[in-house]
Amino acid sequence: MHSKSTHDIAAPFSRRGVLAATAGLMLGLASISGAKAADDTIKVGVLHSLSGTMAISETTLKDTILFLIDEQNKKGGVNGKKLEAVVVDPASNWPLFAEKARELITKDKVSVVFGCWTSVSRKSVLPVFKELNSILFYPVQYEGEESERNVFYTGAAPNQQAIPAVDYLMKDEKVKRWVLAGTDYVYPRTTNKILEAYLKSKGVAQEDIMINYTPFGHSDWQTIVADIKKFGSAGKKTAVVSTINGDANVPFYKELGNQGIKAKDIPVVAFSVGEEELAGIDTKPLLGHLAAWNYFQSIKSPENEKFIKAWQTYTKNPKRVTNDPMEAHVIGFDMWVKAVEKVKSTDPDKVIDALPGIEAKNLTGGTSKMLPNHHITKPVFIGEIKANGQFDVVWKTPGLVAGDAWSKELDGSKDLVGDWVGKKCGNFNTKTNKCLGSGS
Amino acid sequence: MPANLSARLCSLLLSLFLIAFALPAFAGPFEDAVAKFANDDYSDTEEAIGVVASSGNTLAFPIISALQDGRLMADPDSKKVYVTGADGKSIDAATGQAVASVPDSASAVRLNNRLRRSVDAAIGSLTLQSPDIGARLQAAQSVFKSHEETSLEAVDGALAKETNRSVKAALGDARAAILLFKPDATEVEKLEAVATIKARGDQEAMALLTGMGDQPASVTKAAASAIGSIQSSLAVWSMVQNAWYGLSLGSVLLLAAIGLAITFGVMGVINMAHGEMVMIGAYTTFVVQEVIRTRYPGLFDYSLLIAVPLAFLVAGALGVVIERSIIRFLYGRPLETLLATWGLSLVLQQAVRTMFGPTNREVGNPSWMSGAFELGQITITYNRLWILVFTLAVFAILLAMLRYTALGLEMRAVTQNRRMAASMGIATSRVDALTFGLGSGIAGIAGVALSQIDNVSPNLGQSYIIDSFMVVVFGGVGNLWGTLVGAFTLGIANKFLEPVAGAVLGKIAILVLIILFIQKRPRGLFALKGRAVEA
User: Which residue of chain A comes nearest to B451, CA vs CA?
Assistant: First the structure.
């Protein structure tokens, strides 16, 4: 009975399970049966939106964790216990994320949570994880300026995505004029602030930077694309750095294609467009536009080929794509398993202390390491969009880049470091030798 | 005689020599360069492009154009490079000999943006004298863009022979661009070049003039005045451009709102599921295109024409079902209608999400809806133009239907005075169902058009519902002409605000303006007068 209810929740394509009400009902079932079975399984919480605006991106991550748990259980689980997924649906509703997180930790007694996508959802669950002392693995590239004891950031910090991408454009494409276009919320605004400071430190004049924000889901890009065209006709090589998020990308790229802006004239480098997003667009007019990530499906490595094959078999879809946040979950999950095996316990304090220093293979042939600031080391790749919706890697960093929790480009944060091993502090000021603590 | 003979001999020898030279087997540096394509290294490829393009070899053009289209295959093991033709036949790129098949280990030579620019420049100088006018024009334009000094000779050569007027003008522009950047060109040449480029008057001319670097004082001065005059003409054009963008946005708003103008405007049902009808129309387009892609690929350009009636039927039928099963029990209870239709919209979204998945579905643009053309100094994209035309056509048909058909007459009668209509023998409940179905069907048609410019995802409808209500309320409830004028007014106002205030502030400003306007005129732009309003 117990295993049956677990199966219902865990089955990746029982899409009838996505209605919030149904999920809640199942959750009730799971927690009733789970109380009895708490001793012989380790529970893993999955906190990703399965309905609403973010379902487009987050549903895949839920499937990824279920897939990883399935694989781990085939290997015998962790510390002799099977893993059991508890899936909840926060429905792209930021306050609901906090409620569902509390439910996972207090009611379902999960040992770890893999979840969130947008920064606002992460900020919404932070106090819950702090108060109840649990562990969150956050798999998405984000704006940085954060290092929390209870959170492990397996996505890219700005110095692992945005800064190398700008470096590439500056050196290889000799770009002199920059359009920073983004959706109007915290991630693009902070990233653009960091990029603006970085560009200025490299001698780019204010008049050569154009910053533009658009609302979520913006669909009429005619004016902005025409503006970009105009800005790009000042006789200097121009590029667009796009932090445009979610659905708005499709009409943006369509308009670029229709107005004839080719990558060889004005390249666009995007930080939120991956294989999954391209699945909805005709990519032929986008040939040569760029994306910066720590992983691309097209990268040839034995680990990656094995993963893609296993994933497509598991999802029973030979065309199912993989993407960067999925790889972040793969690394994070592996690290968590290793840490739990190391301390032979799922006690949050022990696992949190064990995680820094743990290494896990990433899918592109390297080994990522959890750092004391709870970020990881990652390689950075620049890929060009190909006609088949995949990326062709045109540049990569020579080695792995360590994630900075605090940007070195911003005045407010350049002296700060996160160090949960030596200093036991997420925002230690190296100038004044003081921990700012959570009050800052 | 002997002189003539020796001249003949000479020319024979010369041509023999030329043939021998052109035979790739003898050309050492050319072969070496071609082999470099197999190194999979961007700087090697760039070098190879340069050598091949300037080699004068007859294979240069086939190689470079194959490289451009991803048909140049290189085998990293044997360092052999092949050109595969569009017909599937392949030749060895170094020798020009036909090969039976390209080895499996060969893959297309990769390009990045820098290399694509070099390829364009190379193709440009190679095709300046192509027999095809289009190719020559394109070549002249790409030389204009790359304006490399090395192309000057080729441009001069082509100019001397060119007879077509527009190609000649493009070549003249290309020549001017090269001279402008040529350090040892004379001041007179440069001044002439500035004048030529000024005459173009477009953004590319601006780019060239602003980016030309150090020049003699007189040239800098001439360029500054040219920039000034181009700027002022572009400023006028940008007003025209804003107006066009406004019309285009207005047409999208009108299209999204026009179905609601029936269900909400005429019938008075606060229909929160209106957006989902639009979404269902878009998904119908997707399904139609999927079937066409798998079964009848030749029909792809007609996919939208097939989707329009289907979307109308699917969304319309669903509308009738919704009216019969839910809405008819809620007439006269606006709050309950609002809640029920809102709930219905969530159900429909989740149903589509379950059936088609949460990710975007790709709806392609038929060839006649892709691309753009230039009108003066503004770019008009075909998809926006067709949507404007389509919207006006739908509006006209709907208006005609309401005015001239029996059903239209019955609809107006029922919505204006239900009891009177009933007593004249009109089956009011049937008319209600059909009216709601008509509004929903038109929303479905809107979905077909919107699938061309927006995401086809379960959330498609949500992004239009607020705008739709805004348009209908602003234009005046119950008045189709009000909806038309309202949509275009909002579109144009938005597009004139956007460059000044930005997209986010622009949208806020529009909302504030509407709220203020509604305070002043609660019934919108065109208020219906008389008893109909109270019905």
Answer: A251
Residue with structure tokens 């040992």? A111
Q: Which of A251, A228, A230 is nearest to A241 (CA)?
A: A228
- How many helices (H) and strands (E) chain A has is answered by 13, 19
- The CA distance from A395 to A290, in Å, is 11
End-to-end CA distance of chain B: 109
Q: What SS3 string covers B347-415? A: HHHHHHHHHHCCCCECCCCCHHHCCEEEECCEEEEHHHHHHHHHHHHHHHHHHHHHHHCHHHHHHHHHH
Q: Identify the CA nearest to B387 among candidates B404, B365, B409.
A: B365
Chain B residues inside the 8 Å CB shell of A226: 241, 245, 379
Chain A partners within 8 Å of B117 (Cβ): 264
Which residues make beta-bridge pairs with A115? A47
- What whole-number distance in Å separates Cα of residue B141 and Cα of residue B139? 5
Distance from CA of B529 to the nearest CA of A (A): 35
CB B178 within 8 A of CB B192: no
A366 DSSP assignment: -
pLDDT digits over A200-244, tens only? 999 999 999 999 999 888 888 999 999 999 898 887 899 999 999
**What would the CATH number be for the domain defined by A2-134?**
3.40.50.2300
Q: What are the chain A neighbours of B108 within 8 Å (beta carbons)?
A: none
Of A264, A277, A297, A179, nearest in space to A227 by CA: A179
**B107-108 vs B72-75, strand pairing mode:** antiparallel
What CATH number is given for A159-293 in this structure?
A: 3.40.50.2300
Of B352, B384, B362, B399, residue with least CA distance to B449: B384
Reading the block at residue B316, the tokens are 């319309």
Q: Where are the domains of chain A?
A: 2-134, 159-293
Q: For residue range A395-432, what is the model confidence (pLDDT) as tens digits?
A: 999 899 999 999 998 888 889 999 999 889 999 999 99
DSSP string for B23-46: SGGG-HHHHHHHHHGGG--HHHHH
ipTM: 0.78
Per residue, the 3-state secondary structure of A396-419, as one string, reads ECCCCEECCCCCCCCCCCCCEEEE
